[in-house]
Every structure is written in C-alpha cells, then in structure tokens.
C-alpha cells in the first residue's frame, strides 16, 4: 500500500515537471542554441579570405544577385546566401518580377499573427518563440538571412506597414524586438533590423524626407534598433526615405555616425531594394551591400579608376559581408528537413500569439463571452470566408487556413447564422450580431484612418439595428470608430490573426479563454488629433499603387516630425486630447486589483537601481492574464518631457483569487533624456513619480522618488 502511494506521488511529480516544461517551452530545455563566432574571430577570418580575393571578386560581393542572393564564390568555398522576407513568417515567393524563384522555396510556411498583434501580447518570451519558429522555417528553406524584424514606429495610424511593426512605444518595441532577434538567431539565421531609420510612412515612400531632431531620434526612433543591436543582430537594412535631406542608404551621418558610432553596430548593413542613387556617397557612408543588384554601384569599376571609389572602401564593404557570413557559419549550414511536428509546433505558437494578442476594447454588460441563451447569433463581415492578411513583401500565405466562419460554426453550431449581406430585418431579429469589419493594409501606400464606405455602412447597419452587436475589427493598424463606438456592445480588436488566429477568436467569444491583449498603440478619435496629421502635402490624396509607378514623378516632400518626442500617448497626454482607447489598454473577462507599491529606496543614487514592487491579484471569477505597466513621470525638468513614459511591464497569469508579486528594476538610463550637446544620455536630479497601472490612463498606484 505504502509502495503504491510512493509510486503515485512519484508519478504525479514527474507529470508536474513534464507539464511545467511543456507549458514554459523554456529555452533551456530546447534545441541547441546557435552560437555565432565572436566579432574578433569572424573579423580575422574575413581578413584572411579577403586577402585571397581578386578586385573583381570583391566587387561581386558588394551588390545583390538574382534579387535575393549574395553571390557565391566557389573558388573560396563561399556558398550563395539566400535572403527572404520577413517578420510574420517566411514569404514564399515563386516569382519576383521576371525571376523564377520556385526552386528555392519552402513547400509551406506558417502564417503567424502580424507583428503588431505580437506586440499586443506584451509577452517578450512569446516573441522569442515566434521568432525562433520563423528562424527554424528559414533553416528548413535554406534561407540564411531573414529580412526582418521590421521595426519602424507607429507615428501615424495610416501607415500601410504598421501591421509589420510593433506599435508606438520605444520601450515596448525594444523589449519585443530584442527577444525576436535572439529567437531568430538562435537558429543560425541572420536577423535584419529594418528599416533604418525614421521610415514611418508608405506615402510615396521613396520620396519622403523625414525631418527629425536628434533628441527625438534617440528617445523615440532609435531605442528599438539599439535593443536589436545589443541582442546581437547581424544585419541592418537602411530605408527608402531621406533623413534630414540625405538618402538613408548612402548617408554617412545615418550609417557611420548614428548606426555604427552611436549605436555601436559592427556587422552587415544592406540597402532596401532599389533605394540608393550615388555610388560614391554609398561607398563612403558605411553601407556594405547594395540590394537587390548593383545600380548605384553599376559602374563601380569606372568609379574606382576615376578615384571616386577607393579600393579601401570596397575592401571594407566586402569584408563586412564576409564577417557576418563567417560569424553565422554560413558555409557549414545544413538544410533542416521540415517535418510535420515542426509545423505543428509553429502553429501552436501562432495560436498562442493570437490568443494573447486579441484586444477586448469594450464589453458592455459583459455580453462576452456569448451566453447560451443567445440562440440566434448572426455573423456577417469582410473576413468571414477569407483570411485577412497584410500585403507586400511581408505577406505570408500560410497553410491549413482556419476561416472565421468554420471556427465560429465549430464553436456555436446551429446557433450561428451566417449572412453575407443581411437585411436590416435579419439584423434586428438576431439575438446578437457578430459584425466583422476590416481594412487591407499593405506596403507601398498608406490607407485612410476612416473605414472604407462599405465597411462603415456595414458596422452602422449592425450597431444601429441591434443593441447586442459585437464588432470584430480585422486590421493591421488603427481605424476610426468614432461614429459607432458608443453603440457597439462589445469590440474585439483582432488584427490580422494569421492562419490560425480565428480559432483564438472563437475561443475568446465562447469564453474558453479570457482576452489578455493590450493596445501597443493609441486609438485616436479623429486622425486630425494625431501627431502625424498633415504629413501629406497640401492638395494631395492617398492612393494605392503596388507597382510604384506613381511614385516616379512625385517630388521629394518633407515630413516634419514637429511633435518631437511627443509621439503616441506622449502626444495625447501632453496636449490633453481625449482619445478613444489609450495605449496599454485592454479588458479581460476577470478583474485585477493592484496593491502594496513599495520602492526599495525613496532616494535614487546615480549608479544604483531602484526596485519597484507591487502585487496584482485576480479578484474576478475567471482565469486571466494581466500586463502591469510602469510609467515614470519627471516632475520638473529643464527640458520638455512627456507626462508619462513606459519603463517596465510584466504579464502574469492568475487564477481566480490568486495574487502574484511583481518586481521591476529601474536604472539611471530609465530616468535620463538625450542631450544633443553632449551627444549622450543625461541624468537630471529631482523628483519623479512612479506610476503603476493597467494602461497608460488607468493608473492604480503611485509613489514619488527623489533622484
Ligand atoms: C521592402 C523591404 C523588403 C524588400 C525585399 C522592399 O520593398 O521595403 O522591407 O525586405 O523589399 O522584399
């Protein structure tokens, strides 16, 4: 008998250990983590190979080949390197312009939820897993360089590529991106931080000149790049736009000064596709690789003869390509054979991302989860029968698509009635309406903040005729909700959920899980409220033109970042502008209580740290997860500072009644601002308020600290 008890106890302990390992999928228990060669060793190796190369061979290394390749050099055992897009999974590209790329493609790749929804999870560990999965698929497809993460800033809700990026806040972006970089590179695939820098609109993207002051660059636009660099990113892609009058891809200020000197980046820099114009400037800028082919460097031999380009520049560029090549051990790479277990695992990460990324914005009288007395649930909308996804180079087809219709049918059975174009009568007579609206966001153009007419009409028809309307937004960025937000009973922001995201949506609607996403952006009431309003030259209009034909005739135009550091919630708080939903906001099916804020010290010494501790408790009846956020406020400063700045967050899973302690450490840098005179971070003494809360607006605890 005793033996049996011991056996059962041992068995339960073993199961417990196993479960915790599976749940955490911790890095420690996982596959081997790829270790790059350290800089000095890779540099030495690059030197020794460079010494064996002819000038022609060196020149062949510094521009792309067949659009997505670095040229091979069999004589020196250098294999070709294939690059592929990008942040939300591997873009399977059978054709690129006239080029047939079929033989290089993976059979299938997982379509993950879009990056802005990964940011909405506020879960850096999940970002690692997501990116590791993308990296594994790169290995399976022999892709040496992933052309991601895309990581520009959400400055304007209209930017067509916001879905590819990580929202408006530099701190949140940095935390998600550093784990993304580690995840991709743990598989031996190069992560490319793009697009450097201040590339925050797609409106005539090759013609825009971002005018940004130095402090703003360092406080808002550079921190995510810095975090990616510190995490070990092996490549950076420059951007299409000009920064303060210079094309980023050939600007010594952008590459040599900001990227290399100030941010400390030592590895490979490449241009965005067809984005540089002057070979002489390019060679002197710190740029290494012109993609997708030599255009500015087309006459490099002549430029060399004429003394416009020096051999030492070509040596530097070729060496940089070699350095990353050897650091990432490209010659020794073996193709991992993709198998179904790998894809299953990646799908489960995609599902988890969607579960944690969907944001519940509104839930009047707790209509969600949908109760069993709602017998007649009408479903209608844009992305019910087809999968929504962002377009352009980041597009990922995916496989095994879970359509909204099928997932909701599986969840609600006969209670769900689908109507493509319901009549007002049908809307009125339903017990509840699930109304899906959305936008088609893409690289290459910006789209209006206001919904397209048909979408606005659909949602108004629903909310005006049925007071139990749940709106499901499928979009890669912010949309205008001002005319129907109050009438909607509930709103779920579902982004582009990838191939399996609709399963997560169904689980949330049915109450199998509680939503836990929080907005990585502010949702403004009107576009004119936003800091970027007015960026389109007077008299011009938004357009959609994938071929870029319209772009050619358009003059270079200035985008003045006159709001400076006041981007996103920093802007709305400073200007006292009411928003629809604030940054960091998102509801759950349960409620959380914050208590016991303690600072490890009331005074802060310059080289110390302060530990901020508090407790979060689930005081509702359902299991849920909460992201507690920490903002600092400089009470008095010699320079203008935001009302609040995010400097820490933590997501915790909590059972009903459960509480967990949270500790967030702050250091000197967290309190500092960029001083353009000294070109460094400046730590100014004085009083600070530490705010802890559930969003940038919903502050639950506060304490003052003297620096
Ligand atoms: C995009 C890049 C992309 C490249 C290659 C460019 O148009 O801006 O993000 O990596 O194409 O597809």
Features:
six-stranded mixed beta sheet, alpha/beta, 19% strand, binds beta-D-glucopyranose, 707 residues
Write the layout of secondary structure elements.
Blueprint: H1 2-24, H2 39-50, H3 55-61, E1 69-70, E2 81-84, E3 95-96, E4 99-100, H4 115-120, H5 124-140, E5 145-146, H6 170-185, E6 190-196, E7 208-211, H7 214-221, H8 223-230, E8 235-238, E9 242-243, E10 246-247, H9 252-262, E11 268-270, H10 279-285, H11 300-305, H12 311-327, H13 340-357, E12 359-363, E13 377-381, H14 404-412, E14 416-418, H15 424-429, E15 432-438, H16 453-465, E16 469-474, E17 490-493, H17 501-510, H18 549-552, E18 557-560, H19 569-575, E19 592-599, E20 609-618, E21 624-634, E22 645-654, E23 659-667, H20 668-671, E24 673-675, E25 680-682, E26 687-693, E27 699-706
Parallel strand pairs: 2-5, 5-6, 6-8, 7-9, 7-18, 8-11, 13-14, 13-15, 15-16, 16-17
Antiparallel strand pairs: 1-2, 3-4, 9-10, 12-17, 19-20, 20-23, 21-22, 21-26, 24-25, 26-27
The structure holds beta-D-glucopyranose.
Taking Cα atoms only, what radius of gyration do you get, to the nearest Å? 26 Å
Could you give the order of strands across the largest sheet? 1-2-5-6-8-11
What is bound: which ligands? beta-D-glucopyranose
Looking at how many chains there are and whether they match, the oligomeric state comes to: single chain
SS field, number of helical segments? 20
Shape type: globular
Low-confidence stretches: 1-28
DSSP strand tally: 27
Work out the helicity level: 25-40%
Estimate the mean pLDDT confidence: 94
- How does the helix and strand content classify structurally? alpha/beta
């Amino acid at each position: 008998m005793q033996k049996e008890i011991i056996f059962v106890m041992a068995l339960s302990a073993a199961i417990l250990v196993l479960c915790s390992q599976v749940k955490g999928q911790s890095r420690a228990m996982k596959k081997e983590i790829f270790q790059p060669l350290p800089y000095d060793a890779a540099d030495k190796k690059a030197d020794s190979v460079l010494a064996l190369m002819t000038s022609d061979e060196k020149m062949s290394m510094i521009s792309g080949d067949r659009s997505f390749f670095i040229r091979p050099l069999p004589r020196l055992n250098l294999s070709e390197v294939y690059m592929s897009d990008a942040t939300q999974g591997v873009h399977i590209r059978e054709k690129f312009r006239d080029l047939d790329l079929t033989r290089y493609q993976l059979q299938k790749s997982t379509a993950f939820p879009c990056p802005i929804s990964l940011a909405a999870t506020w879960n850096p560990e999940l970002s690692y897993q997501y990116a590791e999965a993308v990296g594994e698929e790169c290995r399976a497809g022999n892709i040496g360089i992933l052309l991601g993460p895309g990581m520009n800033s959400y400055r304007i809700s209209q930017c067509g590529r916001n879905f590819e990026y990580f929202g408006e806040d530099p701190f949140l972006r940095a935390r998600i991106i550093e784990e993304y970089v580690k995840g991709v590179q743990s598989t031996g695939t190069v992560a490319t931080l793009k697009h450097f820098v201040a590339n925050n609109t797609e409106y005539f993207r090759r013609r825009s000149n971002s005018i940004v002051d130095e402090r703003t660059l360092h406080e808002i636009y550079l921190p995510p790049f810095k975090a990616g660099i510190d995490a070990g990113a092996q490549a950076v892609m420059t951007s299409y736009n000009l920064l303060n009058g210079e094309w980023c891809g050939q600007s010594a200020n952008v590459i040599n000064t900001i990227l290399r000197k100030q941010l400390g980046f030592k590895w490979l820099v490449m241009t965005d596709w067809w984005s540089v114009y002057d070979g002489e400037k390019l060679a002197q800028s710190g740029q290494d690789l012109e993609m997708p082919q030599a255009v500015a460097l087309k006459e490099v031999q002549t430029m060399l003869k004429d003394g416009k380009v020096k051999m030492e520049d070509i040596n530097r560029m070729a060496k940089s390509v070699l350095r990353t090549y050897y650091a990432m051990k490209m010659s020794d790479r073996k193709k991992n054979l993709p198998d179904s277990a790998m894809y299953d695992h990646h799908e489960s990460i995609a599902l988890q991302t969607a579960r944690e990324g969907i944001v519940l914005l509104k839930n009047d009288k707790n209509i969600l989860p949908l109760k069993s007395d709602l017998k007649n649930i009408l479903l209608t909308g844009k992305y019910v029968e087809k999968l929504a996804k962002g377009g352009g180079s980041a597009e990922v087809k995916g496989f095994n698509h879970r359509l909204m219709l099928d997932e909701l049918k599986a969840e609600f059975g006969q209670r769900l009635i689908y109507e493509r174009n319901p009549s007002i009568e049908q809307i009125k007579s339903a017990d509840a309406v699930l109304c899906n609206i959305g936008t088609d966001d893409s690289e290459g153009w910006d789209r209006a903040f206001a919904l397209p007419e048909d979408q606005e009409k659909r949602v108004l028809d629903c909310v005006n005729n049925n007071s139990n309307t749940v709106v499901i937004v499928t979009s890669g960025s912010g949309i205008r909700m001002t005319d129907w937000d109050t009438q909607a009973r509930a709103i779920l922001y579902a982004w582009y959920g990838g191939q399996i995201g609709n399963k997560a949506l169904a689980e949330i609607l049915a109450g199998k899980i509680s939503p836990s996403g929080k907005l990585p952006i502010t949702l403004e009431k009107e576009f004119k409220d936003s800091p970027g309003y007015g960026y389109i030259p007077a008299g011009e209009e938004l357009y959609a033109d994938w071929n870029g034909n319209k772009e050619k005739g358009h003059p270079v135009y200035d985008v003045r970042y006159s709001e400076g550091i006041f981007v996103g919630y920093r802007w709305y708080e400073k200007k006292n502008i009411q928003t629809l939903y604030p940054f960091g906001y998102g509801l759950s099916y349960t409620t959380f209580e914050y208590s016991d804020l303690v600072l490890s010290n009331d005074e802060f010494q310059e080289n110390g740290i302060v530990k901020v501790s508090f407790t979060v408790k689930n005081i509702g009846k359902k299991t849920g997860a909460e992201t507690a956020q920490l903002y600092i406020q400089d009470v008095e400063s010699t320079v203008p500072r935001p009302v609040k700045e995010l400097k820490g967050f933590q997501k915790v899973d909590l059972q009903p009644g459960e509480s967990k302690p949270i500790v967030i450490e702050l250091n000197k840098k967290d309190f500092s601002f960029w001083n353009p005179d000294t070109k460094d971070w400046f730590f100014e003494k004085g009083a600070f308020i530490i705010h802890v809360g559930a969003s940038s607006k919903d502050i639950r605890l506060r304490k003052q600290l003297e620096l």
